[in-house]
Amino acid sequence: MAGRPINHQRRQELLDAAVGFAAEHGFAEVSWRTVAAAVGVSPTTLVHHFGTKEQMLEAILGRLRERMFAATRDPSGERPGLAAEARAAWARAADPRREPEFRLFFAVYGSALQAPQQFADFLDHAVTYWMVALIEAQKDEADPATAVRRATLVIATIRGLLLDLLTTGDRARVQETAEAFFDTLEETLERPPIH
């Protein structure tokens, strides 16, 4: 006798609710029982939709990664160039409404660095999507090696600024520093190459 088919729309709803729970309470608190209670279903319902606890955790991390990527992308899909893309990514990432998700992201990142085998998929994709997008934003501005270096600098700077903001709550100082970085990036990109 075949099992009941999975309702994929319901699975996405449960997954988004589980990510919300993890963002509010921390990844360490995620279990069948706690998530089921928070989203108003039975643990059996979660097992049906996700399989094992490890599969649910992987799905939560995957959805979190999708949200992080969406938070740093231009919703119009346009490629305004690296400086404008970086400035817009910062504005979306630093939005106070996204704070719980980014807190969860950094908490998982720390855990992943301590247990890389357990979080291999998370680590493999933690930078990839955003890196590809930032390189693509430079397709008419830089050779491939330069584009990779610039994208790496932008990701590292925005993540560092965001970690500082989440740690200190000093929005004015961090925002002023971010603006200075983006101004410098724009000036650098506008400067003609030296031959």
From TrEMBL:
InterPro entries: Homeodomain-like_sf, HTH-type_TetR-like_transc_reg, HTH_TetR. Residues 31-50 bind DNA. SUPFAM superfamilies: Homeodomain-like. The keyword rRNA processing does not apply. Residues 8-68 form the HTH tetR-type domain. Keywords: DNA-binding, Transcription, Transcription regulation. Pfam families: TetR_N. The keyword Calcium does not apply. PANTHER family: HTH-TYPE TRANSCRIPTIONAL REGULATOR BETI (PTHR30055:SF234), HTH-TYPE TRANSCRIPTIONAL REGULATOR RUTR (PTHR30055). This is TetR family transcriptional regulator. It comes from Paractinoplanes durhamensis. The lineage of its organism: Bacteria, Bacillati, Actinomycetota, Actinomycetes, Micromonosporales.
